[in-house]
Design brief:
This protein is α+β, with helices and mostly antiparallel strands. It has one domain. Helix content is about 15%, strand content about 40%. It has a four-stranded antiparallel beta sheet with strand order 1-2-3-8, covered by helices on one side. The protein has a four-stranded antiparallel beta sheet with strand order 4-7-6-5, covered by helices on one side. The longest helix is centred in the N-terminal third of the chain and has 16 residues. The chain starts with a helix and ends in a 9-residue tail after the last strand.
Length: about 130
């Protein structure tokens, strides 16, 4: 399925907000084929995760602590970074088809440039069917 650039960033933003809002950080890892996975736990104990696909780059400003509250700080649409991007590499934005995702995990900042994101959720502990 193909998404327009603005719609793609909006969809990724909504996905991450739904999954990680109020959840606590469990782990992060890289997978083969340009994928990054963040796993978290919701307040009710359910484990959730987001897999970022088509990852162009990812980094963390510091080490994420298990149990840190996760907050989405932003998802920006692809672009070129304007004139400043020519002179300052940090001002360059991802290319067309990519989104720049910024997530805060406690004091750590996670930056991921990806093409798409998918999520999953495990049943609540104790098997309660809400």
């Amino acid at each position: 399925m193909s998404f327009a650039t603005g719609d793609q960033a909006g969809r990724i933003r909504r996905t991450i907000e739904h999954v990680l809002s109020g959840a606590s950080f469990e782990s992060a890892r890289e997978e083969e084929e340009h994928k990054v996975v963040i796993e978290a736990r919701r307040v009710d104990g359910r484990r959730v995760g987001v897999r970022f696909r088509g990852v162009q780059s990812s980094n963390a400003a510091s080490v994420q602590e298990k149990g840190s509250t996760l907050k989405l700080r932003g998802v920006s649409s692809p672009g070129h970074g304007g004139v400043l991007g020519i002179f300052i590499p940090g001002m360059r934005r991802p290319g067309i088809g990519y989104a720049h995702v910024r997530i805060e995990a406690g004091a750590a900042q996670l930056d991921i440039v990806c093409q798409d994101a998918e999520w999953w959720e495990e049943p609540a502990p104790g098997g309660s069917g809400a």
